[in-house]
Amino acid sequence: MNDIIKTVDGCSYIEAFSILIQFICLYENKKEYRQVIAWDEYLQHKQHYEQTINDFNSSWNSICPKEENGKLVVRFPDADYLSNGQRDLLFLVLNLIKTEQTLKKDKCILIIDELFDYLDDANLVAFQYYVSKMIQRFRKQKRELYPFLLTHLDPKFFSHFRLAKMNVCYLDESSFSDDMHMSSLIECRTDDRIKEFVDKHLFHYSSNTPDVDYSDAFMDLKIKKVYADKTKFHELVLQQVNQYLLGQNSNPFAVCIAMRVRIEKMIYDQLPPELRNDFLNTKTTEAKLIFASEHNIEIPEIYFLLGIIYNPPLHADKERTDVMWNRLQRNLKNPAIRNMIATLFPDCAANQSL
Question: What pTM did the predictor assign?
Answer without folding.
Answer: 0.62
